[in-house]
TrEMBL record, chains A, B, C, D:
InterPro entries: Amidohydrolase, Bact_exopeptidase_dim_dom, Peptidase_M20, Peptidase_M20_dimer
Domain of life from the UniProt record: Bacteria
Residue intervals of the Peptidase M20 dimerisation domain: 185-280
Organism: Microbacterium suwonense
Pfam families the record matches: M20_dimer, Peptidase_M20
Protein name per Swiss-Prot or TrEMBL: Amidohydrolase
């Protein structure tokens, strides 16, 4: 093949871009797709790219990849490690890294399209390449759909997506039905009253309020969710205060919530809100906390029939043992918006990015979670 | 008098500058002092100003004012409210406000020097005006001393300083002995292990660790300090994480600790460190927390004799009832470094900045702390 | 039939007895078994009863029931509600109630034996009735085995047990493999230092230590266990102090831990112990916490073949739809000691005790957990 | 003198009695007083004793001692250590000990009366000996007053009381004005919903609710009370649950609150109640917590003039340096009800019970709180 995929990968890895800022990545992907003969459209949903390859009569498959990186400072020590920084939505300068492997996704997409084009006489139909921005914000698929892609491009008969994970290289994980959880991102502003650090009684300390709230939120999962159910309540960020001796007026938390279905989602959201409001009361806060939704991701549900066909294809390509049921993932994806809005069946699968030898040794030792950096870790290196 | 002090004050208030960045303020103060005939030196201890006025034989008095503002966004709604922003030491853009009244201090100093110069035939000796930067960082006095001012300027026979507070206008608060507390500023970095927000078991969550630490730190004052003793443990800032669905690798806290003496200081520091280390253990943290000292401020101890003389002078000037014993303040000051390093006696007093009518009504209603914005509040408006 | 089972049930319900104190219950059960013609042995494992019914050649089945009640004050308002009290192992007088349905188990056993005896010509073999004490302490099965029952009575070819649950009446829940969780009961004594309630600084407050420990223990499940895994960490009792103004020297907690397998058991026990020891450190405790194991219950694992046969028998008796897979229960049982020690296969199933109409309405409304009192509730009324 | 006070003391120490159960102690005291010629009345305020000694014209002094012991198991190892047990108001059997020195108070009273009687020709007037029960419950003075003692016995011109403390032997601590704090004892019942320990989601866990409440209560003192003010919020007992695997329906806390004045009392009570109610809300509790007042003790305020005279008398008797200002104590007393109800001035003082050598060494080492067991400690041994 003519495209040097390894060079493409290390280049993308070295130059990660935050959500909705993926202009360099999008440009590179678009250029490759154009070189391969696709009809290419850029700037869709801010920075998304669509490539259409019509290859005669037949069904239309949407192949989706995501391309944004994370505000994580890379610590892998790899020769092609990122030293990039970016400005996050709060205006803070942060390290940026492809800590979730979307650089792999773009590279794999280009490689796949190159092969589809090369082997165009072996299949018929239309391939729509969808390279979406801002998967990490759970907002990119929505943005492309809101930009009218269902009207502007061939309607899908199937939507296909994939994600690299810490499974051994060569393994495909896919299951019919629920594959990834539903998720909400919340932002919570806790209002206290500011003042001098030496006069706490004249203030309402928002940092102590935040700490009490975070400790109490732990009890939602530990006490209020059926131990058989899967639910996650993560406080992923907290920011409050500018100086050691000023008690600030408020504290801002960002929460990530996960659940496999809508019934548990409703319950957990209620409980989380109840805790937040009651803790503000316990502090004697004079203003209600502000709770805003950052994003809502639906559960990723694989179509039964389409998944069976895809699994069979993977088995014939990679061997029967290479395809496993990875179980329900607690992570979430916005790929399913494409399927939900279009009414097309979805197949979303995982592929392994971990050294099989390390994986096998760690699995035997029961230290998998410890030995292999997971997605979003500063050490993630598939 | 020829200097429009009100215009000076509102101008300074409108243009606050963060610690060690007070170039505009220093320039204005230096210009006034020069106009008044003093020998002026700028850029001492980065941005400090020294003005010397020799008026014949006699003792040398150092008059000290501070001039830095705070990273607080003003919410007073005053016509001369600040809309300024600045960049704090972490590189964050923050609102800036004279929320501690140092604009008043500079204005009062210029007014006092104007009068001393005008009435120069009524006194003899040398006045050294010390306008220091970065009192809020507890670092400005140190910086000026490290810049050699004890060698370069007339040695003090007495050091005088003052601070505006929410006492009624016209009231002076001063006491012999301990006037303000000793204080330490600590920075604490709590190390966890980062990862994806949906896989908490593969991480060590530093935000939960921080929350547990903050809640436990409350028990130092509530359970471990003699209720008769005065101690304050404030967590003034916490920063961790960049996004709702990433569990970050660490969390950074800034603490402000107060105590009236060295014995209690030692105890509280030990207890605070014990809590921080044990909570990291409770989380199974793989790296010890890093605890660094941001600043150490000694107790502000007023000289007995000099304070008696100053109090008598205040009484003859403002009336006997205007001078009160304000008790030991929990706040801290770096003014005493000037006295400690030079060996000169110190007198440091408070002057009222609150509307006497509002003060009286609030005191009667027992709502003083609520009605009158204290120093460091975004509503502070003496 | 001649035995009035309803009268037997209401009589047992009215007269509940705590673990290892079930002398009245044991006597009644033994009398019935004797009347039915069994060879009966009492006082085995303190208060256990064995009844042997040899009915010709054939396999030996052990049928096991448990008979102890719980230290719960009944609030059902039923005409036959318990008003009994008992003395628990700590010497405290407590209300006692059959809040877990063991009165049903004894009644059902007598009814079943009556029928087996009546229909003795339809089967062959030996039935050993095992009525065990102290299932709630996880100690009764062990006590009977330690009393030598495997040597003294016919060896089982199969062990059968059952439990009433809030499933609808007429439903049988049974599954091959893991049916109930492994469990440990821990007692934790946290040592502080006692003193007067007005002088906390001269003490080490064990109640604050206990509170911090309990809050921190929540994070074991919420943060350290894979959300896909089932684990429960319950603090079921806390006792400390005698008076409002004395800070006591220590606090005693009792914990109940659940997990489906030994690997997670090891992890959770390690984490729980780590939290307990670190929190004692955070309090500056001078003595290590004492952690003792109250009981260890193995997972209840149903034999695949025997369960298939039992399920088929249930289906033919109650209808195909009456038999469901109830999933893995978080509760634990000590019945499996009989199977583990003897090497015989185990089948343990659940039978419904809830009004089907109430159950159906609650299930539709999603309020099952709320509407139907669960085992161990003071309102439990199957 | 004829009474062997040491034998009396060790006998009383060996036979401590809980509040309102002091029949043996009262009997012994009454017998001694009768032997000394006083007119004695027993059973006043349940177990109180009044002895009247009329010695001619002159003022009437009430001398008050208290006689109840505490539910503390003695650990002093003294030859005359208590091994007594008693039944507390909750029906629990507890160790009982004179851990607060009331045995000393009774002994000292008998010794003082013996001497007053012996030296009757050196003074004139009436002495009323008041030996009250249940000082530890803050209820004994109230009970005696409610029994009509102001009407039945000579009205006091002065009320005198004393307490042994860990000051060096030979030292008297007394001050005009506030001598001991006001105090409230609260009982709080937190209602959850009970259930099986393995099904937390079907319950509302009152133990987690209690833990969160206790941690939050720490912030009342650490954040909401002016660091200059003295306030104590102690949770002295917590009881919940009977067994490790039952989640109980409720938890009961007992709190002891201290403050020097009524204004702070009102604030602290409001804040404590706010925290308790909000934490119940955070748990989703279906019933409000029940907060009941166990006792309310007023501040012990010494009369200025009477205290000056008493201090002078102490100085002439024990030497000038023996009399110190002990500061405001955080402990509380019900002695002041006698003064408040009668309108008579009060003098209440402390006398030292610590070995002066140990005291001096510990004070020098700064380990006083650690080395000398304080009142209510199981090691208290004046």
């Amino acid at each position: 093949m003519s495209i040097d995929l390894e060079a493409l990968y290390t280049d993308l890895h070295r130059h990660p871009e935050l959500s909705f800022q993926e202009t360099r990545t999008a440009g590179i992907a678009a250029a490759h797709l154009r070189d391969l003969g696709l009809e290419v459209h850029e700037g869709i949903g801010i920075t998304g790219v669509i490539g259409v390859f019509a290859n005669g009569a037949g069904p239309t498959a949407w192949l989706r990849a995501d391309m944004d990186a994370l505000p994580v400072t890379e610590e892998t020590g790899l020769p092609y490690a990122s030293t990039a920084t970016g400005v996050d939505p709060d205006g803070h300068t942060v390290g940026v890294m492809h800590a979730c492997g979307h650089d792999m996704h773009v590279t794999a997409m280009i490689g796949a399209v190159e092969r589809l084009v090369a082997e165009r006489d072996q299949w018929q139909g239309t391939v729509v390449v969808v390279i979406q921005p801002a998967e990490e914000y759970g907002a990119g698929a929505r943005a492309m759909l809101d930009d009218g892609i269902l009207d502007r491009f061939p309607h899908p008969d199937i939507v296909l997506g994939q994600h690299v994970t810490p499974l051994p290289v060569g393994t495909i994980g896919v299951r019919p039905g629920p594959q990834m959880s539903a998720s909400d991102g919340l932002q919570v502003v806790l209002h206290g009253r500011g003042g001098h650090g030496s006069r706490p009684h004249a203030t309402i300390d928002p940092i102590v309020l935040a700490a009490a709230t975070i400790m109490r939120l732990q009890t939602v999962v530990s006490r209020e969710v059926d131990p058989h159910d899967l639910a996650v309540v993560t406080v992923g960020s907290i920011h409050s205060g500018t100086k050691n001796n000023i008690i600030p007026p408020d504290a801002t938390l960002q929460l990530s919530l996960r659940y496999p279905d809508d019934q548990l989602r409703t319950k957990v959201l209620e409980k989380v809100e109840r805790v937040i409001r009651a803790e503000a009361m316990a502090s004697g806060a004079e203003r209600e906390p502000e709770i805003t939704t950052l994003h809502t991701l639906p559960a990723t549900i694989n179509d039964e029939d389409a998944t069976a066909r895809a699994a069979a294809a993977f088995q014939s390509a990679f061997g029967e043992q290479a395809v496993i049921d990875p179980g329900l993932f607690t992570g979430s994806e916005d790929v399913s918006w494409f399927a939900r809005d279009s009414g097309a069946p979805l197949v979303f699968w995982f592929w392994g990015g971990a050294d099989p030898a390390v994986f096998a040794a760690s699995a035997a030792a029961g230290t998998l979670d410890h030995d292999i950096p997971t997605n979003h870790s500063p050490f993630f290196a598939p």
